[in-house]
Amino acid sequence: MTDVLMLVIGAVVGFALGFILARTLASSAQKRDEKEAQSILDSARSAAETIKKEAEIEAKDEAFKIRQSAETEKNERLKEARAAEDRLNQREKSLDHRSDSLDSREHQISSLQGQVEKRERDLKESERKLKDRHAALDEEYEAVNRQLEKVAGLTTEEAKAELLANLKDQVAVESASIIRESEARAKAEADKKSREILSLAIQRVAADHSAEVTVSTIAIPSDDLKGRIIGREGRNIRSFEQLTGTNLIIDDTPECVTISCFDPVRREIGRVTMENLVADGRIHPARIEEMFKKAEKLVNQKVKEAGEKATFESGVHDLHPDLEHTLGRLLFRTSYGQNVLNHSLEVAYLAGVMASELGLDPIPAKRAGLLHDIGKAIDHEVDGSHAVIGADLARRLGEKPEIVHAIEAHHNDVEPDSVLDVLVQAADAVSAARPGARKETLDAYVKRLEKLEEIANSHKGVERTYAIQAGREVRVMVKPDEVDEAETVVMAHDIAAQIENELTYPGQVKVVVIRESRAEGIAK
């Protein structure tokens, strides 16, 4: 019994101790779990704080980049605005200068008109006084005659007969002297009258002259575009120069490129091509070729419009269409620094004014003056003097013989035989003889470059030739189906040797022969 009681007591004590131990262990585990949960929560909060700080840093970086980009764009636009403002200021100064020049010219014209009116009034007054003087002299003459008749006892007729008999030989000598004086006086008066006519014609036709330039400068939005114009390994600039026959100069000058060429038509086509490429933004060989074709079409349209405008302004109508088109080509032709189309218009005006002053029909004079240099539009295609070339062209296209002869005679290739011939010669000389109107060095320079191209074009298989870099380089495009690779080397040597034998030039001339093959396919 006692043993059982002890067992029961031991069991109860063991159960109590187990329960207490279990509660202790459970409480310890709960505390450990709470501690781990708190640790996880602290880690999560730390990670969240880190992420928040990183997000704030990234947001600040992004905001800085956006602000920097906006500032760069703002500076670029400000630079463009300043450049545009500079161009506008420059244009405004040019317009102001032109306005001042026109005001000065109007003042001079008004002053001249006032002088002419005063001179006319003085002449009328002088004529009136002269008439009064003549009347008084006639009365005195009659009185003297009556007095002489009374003193001499002879009539006027008897006195004349006696005087003529006594002074016959002396009168003959004096008559010869009077005739010579009259001839000299008439010649002097003729010279004076001709000078007055020329002066009047020059005053009425005061065309400006400007020396020809051989470069065109094209503005570009930014210097970054220069790299795209050059292209990878220079393929874009090579394609542009080969198509247009010009020299494209890209240097350190900010926001511009320069096109150089002695031929103004090529330079104009190159300028239009480059401006269209810059405006479009897509610059690659295929696009360059497309823009070149458009520019070529545009320049040809300008030639047509220039011919039509010249005939309209000069009052010369019923020209053959081919003559009108050839006349328009003179818009891009210069001679001794003069624009030949402007020079031709001026000669037409001068000849018309002088013809009117002489009492002749001014229309034929204007027509001959307008067409006198027509041969210069094609003198690089046909051998001979431009006067003879122009006369042959006008003759073939139905111009009247007197117009053709005036064209042919304006440089004495044939003898002038009419007043119209002399008028055209005089008008041409007046237009060309103004101080600074001509520059022979430029004309010689152009002739030398044209001769370079002519020598290269004379070889078999040559398709196109361009003299560039002020005549220091000649680029020759050959037909690939007629000239093989080996023949290009021989051709370059032959052209160089021919240039050495036939031309005189400073420095060296580089001859580059280019052979290019293309294959095309069309997918349908």
What does this structure look like?
Helices cover 71% and strands 7% of the residues. With 524 residues, the protein is mainly alpha-helical. Strand 2 (247-249) and strand 3 form a beta hairpin. The longest helix is centred in the N-terminal third of the chain and has 151 residues, at 2-152. The radius of gyration is 48 Å and the shape is elongated. The N and C termini lie far apart (118 Å).
Any chance you could write out the topology, listing elements then pairs?
Elements: H1 2-152, H2 156-166, H3 168-204, E1 215-219, H4 224-230, H5 235-244, E2 247-249, E3 256-260, H6 264-280, H7 285-314, H8 321-329, E4 334-335, E5 338-339, H9 340-357, H10 362-371, H11 386-396, H12 401-409, H13 419-432, H14 440-457, E6 462-468, E7 473-478, H15 485-502, E8 510-515
The proportion of residues forming helix, as a percent range, comes to: over 70%
Q: Compute the CA-based radius of gyration.
A: 48 Å
Kindly report how far apart the N and C termini lie.
Answer: 118 Å
Strand content: 5-15%
The helix-strand sequence is HHHEHHEEHHHEEHHHHHHEEHE
Average residue-wise pLDDT:
79
Low-confidence segments: 203-212
SS content category: mainly alpha
| Helix count from the secondary structure assignment | 15
What is the approximate shape?
elongated
Question: How many β-strands, per DSSP?
Answer: 8
Side-by-side strand order of the widest sheet? 1-3-2
Major sheet size, sense and barrel closure:
3 strands, antiparallel
Q: Based on the structure, what is the oligomeric state of the protein chains?
A: single chain
